Amino acid sequence: MGNLPAETDVIVVGSGASGLAAALTAAEGGAKVIVFEKERSPGGTSNFFEGTFAVESDMQRQRYITYTRDEAFKNIMEFSHWIANPRVVRAVVNESGPTISWLQQQGIEFSDATINMPDSPRTYHIIKGKGEAVIKALVTKAKEKSVDIRLAAPVKRLIKEGDRVVGVVVEDNGEDKQVKAKAVVIASGGYANNKEWIKKYTGFDLDVNLIPVGSVDKMGDGIRMAWEAGAGEENKSLLELFRTGPMGPEFAMGSQLEIATIQPGLWVNPRGERFCDESVAFYDSFVGNVNVRTKEAFSYTIFDEAAIQRMMEKGVDKNANVSTLPGTKLTDIRRELKASLDRGSSEVFAADSVAELAGKMKVDPAVLQATVAEYNAFCEKKHDDLFAKDVKYLNPIVGPKYYAVRARTVFLGTMGGIKINERAEVVDKKDVVIPGLYAAGFDAGGMYGDSYPIKCSSGLASAFATNSGRIAGKNALKYVGK
Q: pLDDT by residue (tens digit) across 334-376?
């Protein structure tokens, strides 16, 4: 792409949805922008999301969806027990509707404004082509606006003069070079692949009892640089958790066996005991939270021949994604099960009795037998005395063949680290703005409490990325005088 300029107006660290939104927004206002991305391709985790949150968008108005910004703000804050930064939440909620229109102006198409779980507001705007289409469109538009996108160019540290951030040190063709800028936006995507930080801040052992999905080489570079520059900390331990399975190279993502595993049937922990109302299956944050209660951070889904038949003939209760909605029939589930068992998978087990199944799971047979007997009794009386599970999901486990599939705790990313205000300005531990420094997306905190508030805001993680990016871009633009 030619020689690296010595200075520019705005530097963006990271080329995911948040970084590209910030870069394009600043460029639309006339700023000269350079994006530095340490990977050889743009997008990162943003390539995989299927939809995004918004309130009072034109699409919602056309569908007579009356859920308001005030309602969304209150619901998100109540879900967080007011741990979230209310000004950050309000800014993102207010920006969300116009951002849908802005994305459409960039050539991004949406198919519907809907929900992706029961009894929730219709905030989920489904993207044609998923996040990959968003990244491609934003890269194209950014280049049209003369944004200089540098791939395989990791930023090493920030440059400060006094209290101001005035540029970065970046690796360019194997050499560390200084590039001055009036403003820097950090949007490097969190620290999902940093084993040391994951252990230190969350207590998990990465790739052992916590599995990252969709994240590559996210080491917290942007967060580290901001902290070194004096930034405060917020939400540094928060993860976007959910429960899925089975895991391993032999299992395709979105397989029918995975879809079967996430259904609200009978779930047991590594000791063979029930541990929740399985209808939390519909809410990924709840599922992630209950699954990590075990030291091993995995559980098992138990089902029988009758459950397989129901999934084949009547379809599933819970969707896995926008292409496998409730009612999708798992016509290939028996073949996938057989293939896994024939391979001798350590994730999938089958037996002719509950006791035999327990042995293969390395669970005390007496415990698993008692669990299944108690669950079957609840099914027969049509009331779950233990966890009050909805009767419509109470189906007995009676054989003649019994199956167990391991369900792992996985996460899409870390969801904070750098403390920001409602203008996406980075602030120090005393909430004083660090001039010239902004943060967005998975690097920035303030949007959440102790869990991702999925029940009241479908698609909020991707929306926080794009909206915090746009907010950062707008305010960086003001700061540089454009």
A: 999 999 999 999 999 999 999 999 999 999 999 999 999 999 9
Report which residue type is found at 308. Answer: I
Mean local confidence (pLDDT), 215-224: 96
Q: What angle do CA 12, 482, 108 make, to 5 degrees?
A: 55
Tallying the residues shown for the chain, one arrives at 482
> Got the DSSP string for 320-369?
SSTTS-TT---TTHHHHHHHHHHTT-SSEEEESSHHHHHHHHT--HHHHH
Mean pLDDT of the chain: 95
Measured distance CA(316)–CA(324) in Å, rounded? 9
Please state, in angstroms and rounded to a whole number, the distance separating the CA atoms of residues 21 and 317.
Answer: 36
User: What is Dmax (Cα atoms) for the chain?
Assistant: 74
Report the pLDDT value the prediction gives residue 1, as an integer from 0 to 100.
53
CA gap 349, 153 in Å, rounded: 46
CB atoms within 10 A of CB 335: 11
| Integer Cα distance of 111 and 219 in angstroms | 34
Q: Are 222 and 37 in contact (CB under 8 A)?
A: no
Q: What are phi and psi of 169, to 5 degrees?
A: -105, 125
Is a pLDDT exceeding 90 seen at residue 293?
A: no
Residue 284 confidence (pLDDT) above 60:
yes
Tell me the torsion sign for CA atoms 50, 221, 22, 240: positive
Six-digit token pair at 61? 């108005």
Burial class (CB in 10 A: 0-12, 13-18, 19+), 55: buried
